[in-house]
Design a protein that fits this description.
By secondary structure, the protein is α+β, with helices and mostly antiparallel strands. The protein has 2 helices and 4 strands, in the order βαββαβ. It has a single domain (2-70), classed as 2-Layer Sandwich (Alpha-Beta Plaits), CATH 3.30.70. Pfam families: CRISPR_Cas2. Homodimer, forms a heterotetramer with a Cas1 homodimer.
Length: 92
């Protein structure tokens, strides 16, 4: 499956540390697109593993992670408004 993962971490007490940990975990499984956005192919078991790792750091009342999924990347239309990042050029 192909996913886009977006996270929003509140930058209060401990937020910077949480954000760093979330970033490092996501980087192991997906391609970093920009700031707090990742995308890529992932198997359902790896997605479960990713979620379990992230659950250790996500503070339920303060932080959020959104995952958009599609069967394959080709079913997902992507359009850049403004500067297109070179890191995602191989996904077209």
């Amino acid at each position: 499956m192909y996913i886009i993962l977006i996270y929003d971490i509140t930058q209060d007490n401990g937020g910077a540390k949480v954000s760093r940990n979330i970033f490092k975990i996501c980087k192991k499984y997906l391609t970093h697109v920009q700031k707090s956005v990742f995308e890529g192919e992932i198997t359902p078991p790896l997605l479960v593993k990713l979620r379990m790792e992230l659950d250790q750091y996500i503070r339920e009342e303060e932080d959020s992670v959104i995952v958009f999924s599609s069967r394959q990347e080709r079913w997902l239309e992507k359009e850049f408004w403004g500067a297109a990042d070179e890191k995602t050029s191989n996904f077209f």
